[in-house]
Design brief:
Helices cover 68% and strands 4% of the residues. With 216 residues, it is mainly alpha-helical. One of its GO terms (molecular function) is transcription cis-regulatory region binding.
Length: 216
């Protein structure tokens, strides 16, 4: 009995191997430090298969950069779940997101799409996935903690990631300072929720501290 894989299955496997190899190499060496032959060798494939499955090194880099960010963004979730107050959540998420190693890669990928308009739909598709992933996570956190936001979750998450990527872009433009100088936490509106219209939720640590300050 033949154990050969169907052509379509082999193709999917080869494409996945190329993408995984690209993620590892681009993360370690950056865009300029990797060529198509390096990626093919790491995936045990032929260089022309990179062109066949992705079209170009530029396109493969855009795929790889966003895959890195989506994986990193998923790792933010347990960090956020450990926070017990909205202020701690905003600070931890912002600080960690700005330090993600994939953020510079995505900023570079987006610069590639500016000069390669045919790759813009690829960036838009991946940004949509990022925003939806973040929206689902935020919605779950709000429900679990009883917290609230001042605008739709879709807008909240899109604003957050736009601030993260924008902070990195400004830092790389040569402007003095670093991305950490941007108050990304300040763009988030997460706060203690309400149980009934006009009535504050049960006091959490943050509310208790505010009440104590008001009595002093």
């Amino acid at each position: 009995m033949s154990t050969a894989q169907p052509p379509r299955l082999r193709g999917r496997r080869t494409r996945a191997l190329l993408l995984d190899a690209a993620v590892d190499l681009f993360a370690a060496r950056g865009f300029d430090g990797v060529n198509v032959a390096d990626i093919a060798a790491a995936a045990k494939a032929h260089p022309n298969q990179v062109t066949y499955y992705f079209g170009s090194k530029d396109a493969l880099f855009v795929h790889a950069a966003f895959l890195m960010l989506l994986r990193d963004a998923a790792r933010l979730e347990p960090i956020g779940r450990r926070q017990r107050t909205p202020a701690a959540f905003r600070a931890a998420l912002s600080r960690t997101a700005l330090a993600l190693p994939s953020v510079p890669a995505v900023v570079e990928a987006m610069s590639i799409t500016r000069r390669r308009p045919e790759l813009r739909p690829l960036a838009e598709q991946n940004l949509t996935v990022l925003f939806r992933q973040a929206e689902h996570y935020l919605t779950a956190i709000l429900e679990r903690r009883g917290w609230a936001i001042d605008r739709p979750a879709e807008v909240e998450t899109r604003t957050f990631w736009s601030a993260v990527l924008g902070a990195r872009l400004i830092a790389e433009s040569g402007y003095p300072g670093t991305s950490a100088d941007v108050d990304v936490a300040g763009v988030l509106t997460i706060h203690e929720g309400r149980t009934r219209r006009g009535e504050s939720a049960a006091p959490g640590p943050e509310n208790e501290r505010q009440a104590l300050r008001g009595r002093s």
